[in-house]
Amino acid sequence: MDIPERIETGMQRALRYATANGCPPILARALRHAVFPGGARIRPRLCLAVAAACGDREPGAADCAAIAIELLHCASLVHDDMPCFDNALQRRGAPSVHAQFGEEIALLVGDGLIVAAFETVARETQQTPLLTAPLIATIANAVGTPYGLVAGQAWESEPEINITAYHRAKTASLFSGAVSTGAIAAGGNPRDWLGLADALGAAYQVADDLYDAAGGQNDGAGKPAGQDSRNGKPNIVTSIGLEAALDRLKRLVAEAVDNVPDCPGADTFRAMIRNEATRLMPKTLATTAA
Amino acid sequence: MDIPERIETGMQRALRYATANGCPPILARALRHAVFPGGARIRPRLCLAVAAACGDREPGAADCAAIAIELLHCASLVHDDMPCFDNALQRRGAPSVHAQFGEEIALLVGDGLIVAAFETVARETQQTPLLTAPLIATIANAVGTPYGLVAGQAWESEPEINITAYHRAKTASLFSGAVSTGAIAAGGNPRDWLGLADALGAAYQVADDLYDAAGGQNDGAGKPAGQDSRNGKPNIVTSIGLEAALDRLKRLVAEAVDNVPDCPGADTFRAMIRNEATRLMPKTLATTAA
């Protein structure tokens, strides 16, 4: 199976467990709505690409880490779309979970997907028990408090935002988690991959801000353009301008490529990042920046 | 250390990690508000009592399972109190998390505590790696979908409630998880403890309904009396009457005692349950039912 197929197969399997016979029917439908059809599945693709670059010693462990990370990303989108945050009615061209199923169900879908993420890792690493705790600790660190996604979102409620901590926690942490777990699952050293993870996480944050400012649908996030400024959120294009933001994106992608450590699949991995970079950019800007 | 001290020490330790230096300050305060001071800590006490009855072979593993279960219980209270569910302004005699910190922070506190629960198990079982996956899978099963807490809450959004599935998922599942993880951590067989877990979970559901109907503060849940009927939720006292509900509680406690399996600490454990049963009952009813 190629990487996209491994991801969709794994997501289907995780959702079969989460919505098994006996699940309240509306919750089951809403869980599926939150996860299928997916966006670009950038984070799990990154996780599996790192695992492949390191030799993919335990593909089952890499798969479940990738799936857990994508389930957590979906959970964060469902909760972020809720009225008390972005109040977004659309996601990936369809109604957001709370718009379609109500706030109660949206809250529970997010909670259920968080639990399903950790359950997936526990279930799928029974043959590789020495990987269970490191994978779960790494993933939890990327999504929880004090430094993960949850903390990133919480910075928006502070009277003074620590912008570096905010971006690192809200966007970079899950990229970093994807890279680290890919390395861990394949017996690589996650420390060797930290420079790459930081650069890629920052690049994705800039790309996301470019989408928001320039318009067009971002495959990864799937949120409507202009939402940041409507919600008064920090956006790099507003602070430094479009040209400078595009420059920064190019520099960050080059930095990511430079930071790929020595490993069996380093060249393939570098090519993948360059390719991904074009994909990350809004189509209207891709020619200017390529 | 005795059981209550092990629990409070473990909760403090888990919260030190979750609110470590760099955590957004409001989120850190709200996380602590959700967890301290605690209620009766019934579920973690049960977990550690089962582990003790089985010989407590790996006290560190039992501790982290107990802490994870209590963190998840606290998370569920924070989310249940939110406006889209119970809209409760009070919890354990203090403002609920959303009343004090706003809806955004309450949503994130719940998410953060769910993550912290699994992170705690992963962090604290590094010396006992064969226990990590079974503990996390058991806990996730008790709180997630299709059969755990999240599913239980979701039944309230269905046009037709499956009452048995609802009570089992909403209340009994976490008791069952507490009992099972206590046994697993101590090398016991969780299957031997299922009868006890079922009876205790059902007893607690009846006790909770009695509190709601009879008034008085329930140490465990800490929710104001009469909330179920105001929110149109099923309550056993409304369906079968006060006397019959008290009878059922007594029968369930006796059933729990009868279902304690052979193990080194069976007698102490039976005495603990009888003692707990008195504690479970509203003070105004305790003399009638004892």
UniProtKB/TrEMBL annotation, chains A, B:
Belongs to the FPP/GGPP synthase family. It holds the Pfam family polyprenyl_synt. It is an enzyme of class 2 (transferase). One of its GO terms (molecular function) is dimethylallyltranstransferase activity. Keywords: Isoprene biosynthesis, Magnesium, Metal-binding, Transferase. Its EC number is 2.5.1.1, 2.5.1.10, 2.5.1.29. Its cofactor is Mg(2+). This is Geranylgeranyl diphosphate synthase type II.
